[in-house]
Amino acid sequence: MIPKLEPISKKAVIIADGDFPQHEIPLRYLRESEFIICCDGSARYLADAGMTPSVIVGDMDSLSEELKERFADRLYVDSEQESNDLTKSVRWCLNAGYDDLVILGATGKREDHSVGNISLLAEYIKIVNVKMVTDTGIFIPFVKSCTVDSAPGQQVSVFSIDPSTRITSYGLLYPLKNRNLNNWWEGTLNEATGDYFKLDFDGGIMIVFLAFKTDK
Length: 216
Prior knowledge:
Elements: E1 11-15, H1 24-32, E2 36-39, H2 42-48, E3 55-58, H3 65-70, E4 75-77, H4 85-96, E5 100-104, H5 111-119, H6 121-124, E6 129-133, E7 137-142, E8 146-149, E9 155-160, E10 166-170, E11 179-180, E12 190-191, E13 196-201, E14 206-211
Parallel strand pairs: 1-2, 1-5, 2-3, 3-4, 5-6
Antiparallel strand pairs: 6-7, 7-14, 8-13, 9-12, 9-14, 10-11, 10-13
């Protein structure tokens, strides 16, 4: 009998055109990635850091003529105006078979862009495995009850996309007990008490933020 082989995930890093990473953790994801997708103008920051994008996706309205010429062999122009360049890049990854994504540079510069990009994780998790790494922590979306690795004292925030979803937590300093999170602030500023915590919920999507530990 021939054993059934598990599908192999293809990993990639997407750099959005927000603040380029400065913290060691997102920079490590960048350095260790074998495939880097730049959202349009973010390619200039990657080039300034001495790295080369694998592909550049977007309408190219933020890319200089010099970079368009330098990276002409890896431009994928998508002029569709109903989605932003980050979504275009995720869509490109899906079509190319990349299904395990880390998004960097998606926050900063403008708060409306940051909030919009974070909310898009609820859409992306339906089609790919994804997380967003910033200079202060990691956003991870979940579509079902989950166990999340943490560290004692790590700051945690939980955002519910659907306010009608009831959630119960285990291993957080301030427990959520069959609770509806009616606004995004209601699940913020919590804290892990151990090496992991659990979230039980049925339906809906949760986005968890894990803050990097800082020396006080």
